[in-house]
Amino acid sequence: MSRVVLLDENVNIRVKALLDGLNVHTVYDLGIDRLTNGELLDFARKKVHVFVTHDRGIPFQHNHRDQSLIIVVLATKSTELVYVSPLIPTLKTLIHESIPGSILILNQEGQVTNQS
Questions:
Q1: How many C-beta atoms surround the C-beta of residue 57 within 10 A?
Q2: 77: Cα within 13 Å, side-chain hemisphere
Q3: Which of these, 5, 101, 113, lies nearest to 53 by C-alpha position?
Q4: Three-state secondary structure of 9-61
Q5: What letter does residue 87 receive in the DSSP assignment?
Q6: In angstroms, rounded to a whole number, what is the distance separating the alpha carbons of residues 77 and 94?
Q7: What is the pLDDT of residues 54-105, one digit of tens each?
């Protein structure tokens, strides 16, 4: 099964091209860039498998227990591609191998912390 990935509005849109071969959409592609975090996560739970964001507060703002959504937080210095692109191989692995309901923090050094 190919997982559907949604990139939050704070993720550099060029990341989509780096995730070649995956079924990736941005909030702009889907016209949902004006939704609040809660509305966006409700949408994501119904329509996608993996939600990628830079918002470090997401794991603490909403109840994600027993959810089917995988959330990956890119905890980088900046959203600039120079900081994010080295993490793409690890991000691809997380997209393919993570367990639904996981909340994962991917830091600048490529280390992953499970927040779920």
A1: 10
A2: 8
A3: 5
A4: CCCCCCHHHHCCCCEEEECCCCCCCCCCHHHHHHHHHHHCCEEEECCCCHHHH
A5: G
A6: 20
A7: 999 887 766 655 578 999 999 999 999 999 999 999 999 999 999 999 999 9
State residue 41 phi and psi, 5-degree precision.
-65, -35
Handedness of CA 45, 98, 95, 71 (dihedral sign): positive
Condensed to tens digits (0 to 9), the pLDDT of residues 5-15 reads 999 999 999 99
How far apart (Å, rounded) are the C-alpha atoms in residues 99 and 25? Answer: 20
Q: How far is CA 83 from CA 75, 107, 109, in A?
A: 10, 10, 10
